[in-house]
Design brief:
Blueprint lengths: L6 H49 L5 H7 L10 H50 L3 E5 L5 E4 L1 H6 L14 H15 L5 E9 L5 E12 L5 E9 L1 H15 L9 H14 L3 E8 L2 H8 L1 H18 L5 E6 L2 E7 L3 H15 L1 E4 L6 E4 L1 E8 L6 H18 L3 E4 L7 H19 L4 E10 L4 E12 L5 E2 L1 H10 L3 H19 L7 E6 L1 H4 L4 H12 L6 E5 L8 H13 L3 E7 L3 H9 L4 E4 L11 H16 L3 E4 L5 H10 L3 E2 L11 H6 L11
Parallel strand pairs: 11-12, 14-16, 16-17, 17-18, 18-19, 19-20, 20-21
Antiparallel strand pairs: 1-2, 1-5, 3-4, 4-5, 6-8, 6-11, 7-8, 9-10, 13-14, 13-21, 14-15
Length: 671
């Protein structure tokens, strides 16, 4: 048996195994490294896809696209397909997201528009003057606007509870039933309602069936407030038959009431009432006082007539009364009592005095004095005219035997003629009469006298047309016409070498007008005449009611250099009081003391006394109606300063020729 040493072999074997294991381990490690190196890029690409997918729910599509490889490799594998699919999904999701966002934005904008529209409609409905409410089909109020809520603040369950009238409510409900039955599309009803304060209001309601937001049928009720229109209609109806100032009937109401009596066949009467000198009251004291007079008369009429009678104001200062079931004897007693009630006085505002006024009343009986409206009006008007002729505060029943129709027509014709004369240039004419200085035997100034011709060229006397102008309220216009044309004539005719003055008569209504000084001074400035060559002659002193206004006006024009004369001095006690109060330069002695001066010693004493008294106040006297040399001589003896009359010179329109006359020849000067 051979024994060999195997230790070395064993050691070699062990070493060889170790080396093999080491080489195997190294090979495994290298292979793993190689495998890792091979798998690294696919894993990175896979993680990029995962990251991109994680970004998609966050809508971060740009980042998702950027996380994926920009260019695919040359070799396409499963990862390339996955990346491509991820890119496609990303693009599609992004496009869908953009589309959704656009739609969302559009939806938001539409919602905003709808919201604004809804808010606008709500504000519009709430700010509307219309009443708007919705009802269920059984009449329960569902919604309402602010106007409805503010007007009907009390708790209301059913719409029918708003009606004041039960009949109106039933009518409304019956029409609603027709609407429900589709017999009509819209119903309308206006009726009276009560608001939360209990006040009556009138509303015109319109109802129709509409669908609410849930598709249910409801009643849309829209109302228009007719309250103001109803009141306006009532006011217009009242104004159509009544006078707004006095609250009594007007001409239409009078005609209706009179026709009613005539149609009934019952006896009665109509009364015409006119306020005397009302135009003067208006001009002197203002329309407030004038309106007060009319209101006071209307109040007296209300208190003075029976409930079956009717009273009216025709126009201006004319009133009427229509009486029923009255005879002539009863009418006389009624008129006597009514005249006393209507003649009265009214206090002046802010002054411790009153203005007195009177009326003239005329009456005509039904049917004795007429069976038609026209006949009765004419006859009552004629009776009133007869009452005016008696003086203020009188009454008259129509008397067929005293026919004043011609006088009434004459007044109407004169009024028409005066209105024409104020517009035309050929009807009015100014005449001038010289006033003679007795001491110097020269003409001092000329009095302006107004003349009138009718359309046929016939003269109309001042005694006719001046009173008519006063009665018809035209006298102030006539005065202004005279002032304008007289000052124009003075400006044209004036000669520095032969200066002269014009004396212009002004009526009491004009003198009592607050605008008189401005009008006169304005004309002086317009025609550039010397105010000292103008004399304003005060007439009708008996009719001056507002003496303080006259005094103020005369003092204002006197301060402007205009002279003032007083006419008809000595005929009444009032003129004596004016003598020491008014700023007078001339005083005209009334002609009644001059006509028979030569033979009447009493008049001589009176004229001499008046002259001395006037002179004592620093004024000069003028004698009118001087018609012969004897009267002129006597006036010189008595100390009178000036004379006027036919002996001195007749009135003539030829002012320039008179002014050019160098001397004075009695009875021919001024002819």
């Amino acid at each position: 048996m051979a024994i060999s040493d195997q230790a070395q072999q064993h050691q070699n074997l062990v070493n060889s195994v170790k080396i093999s294991v080491l080489i195997g381990a190294l090979a495994l490690l290298v292979s793993e490294l190689i495998l890792i190196l091979i798998m690294l890029n696919p894993l990175r690409r896979l993680f990029a896809v995962v990251d991109a997918l994680k970004l998609l729910p966050k809508h971060e599509y740009r980042l998702a696209r950027e996380s994926l490889p920009r260019q695919p490799g040359l070799l396409q594998d499963e990862l390339s397909l996955l990346e491509k699919s991820t890119r496609y999904v990303t693009r599609e999701l992004e496009a869908l997201h953009i589309e959704v966002e656009d739609k969302n934005q559009s939806l938001r904008e539409q919602i905003a528009v709808i919201t604004r529209s809804r808010a606008f409609l709500e504000r519009l409905i709430d700010s509307s003057h219309l009443f708007i409410a919705t009802q269920s089909m059984d009449g329960t109020i569902l919604t309402c606007n602010a106007r409805f809520e503010n007007e009907f603040k009390r708790t209301i369950g059913r719409f029918g509870d708003l009606f004041v009238s039960e009949d109106s409510r039933k009518t409304f409900e019956s029409r609603i039933e027709r609407l429900k039955a589709k017999q009509c599309e819209v119903i309308q009803l206006d009726a009276e309602f009560a608001n939360h304060q209990g006040n009556a209001i009138y509303v015109d309601w319109t109802c129709s069936i509409v669908e609410d937001e849930k598709g249910r049928n409801i009643l849309l009720t829209i109302g228009i407030d007719l309250t103001q229109r109803k009141r306006d209609e009532e006011a217009l109806e009242w104004l159509a038959n009544n006078d707004p100032l006095t609250g009594i009937g007007n001409r239409r109401g009078f005609q209706h009431d009179l026709q009613k009596v005539l149609d009934s066949g019952r006896p009665g009467a109509i009364i015409f009432i006119d306020v005397n000198r009302f135009k003067q009251i208006n001009d002197v004291y203002g329309h407030t006082v004038g309106d007060g007079v009319l209101i006071q008369i209307a109040g007296a009429l209300r208190a003075g007539v029976r409930g079956s009678d009717s009273i009216s104001r025709l126009a201006g200062d004319e009133f009427t009364v229509v009486l029923v079931d009255i005879n002539a004897e009863q009418l006389e007693r009624f008129l006597q009592k009514l005249t006393q009630q209507l003649n009265g006085q009214i206090p002046l505002p802010g002054e411790d005095r009153v203005v007195e006024y009177t009326v003239s009343i005329g009456a005509a009986l039904i049917p004795e004095h007429g069976r038609t409206e026209q006949e009765l009006i004419v006859h009552a008007d004629m009776a009133m005219y007869q009452a005016k002729k008696k003086g203020g505060g009188q009454w008259q029943i129509f008397d067929p035997d005293t026919n004043d129709l011609a006088d009434i027509r004459r007044d109407h014709d004169l009024t028409s003629l005066l209105k024409q004369a104020l517009k035309r240039k050929d009807l009015f004419e100014l005449n001038y009469q010289p006033i003679f200085s007795i001491k110097t035997e020269t003409v001092s100034h000329y009095e302006v006298l107004l003349r009138l011709k009718d359309t046929d060229g016939n003269p109309v006397y001042p005694s006719d047309f001046i009173p008519a102008a006063e009665r018809m309220g035209l006298i102030r216009l006539v005065d202004e016409w005279v002032l304008d044309h007289a000052l124009q004539k003075l400006a044209i005719t004036s000669d520095p070498e032969r200066p002269f003055s014009l004396s212009i008569n002004i009526s009491a209504p004009t003198l009592q007008s607050s605008s008189f000084p401005e009008i006169l001074i304005g004309l002086i400035q317009k025609y550039e005449v010397n105010p000292s060559h103008i004399i304003i002659e005060l007439t009708e002193t008996a009719y001056i009611e507002n003496f303080q206004m006259v005094l103020n006006n005369l003092e204002r024009i006197h301060e402007a250099g205009i002279l003032v004369a007083l006419d008809d001095f000595g005929v009444g006690f009032s003129s004596f009081s004016y003598l020491k109060k008014l700023p007078l330069s001339y005083v005209k002695l009334d002609g009644s003391y001059i006509r028979d001066l030569e033979s009447n010693t009493d008049n001589q004493v009176f004229v001499e006394s008046l002259n001395k008294m006037v002179n004592a106040f620093g004024m000069r006297t003028i004698a009118e109606f001087v018609e012969d040399a004897e009267t002129l001589r006597k006036l010189e003896e008595l100390g009178v300063a000036y004379a006027q009359g036919y002996y001195i010179g007749r009135p003539t329109p030829k002012l320039k020729e008179m002014v050019a006359g160098a001397g004075f020849e009695p009875t021919t000067f001024g002819l």
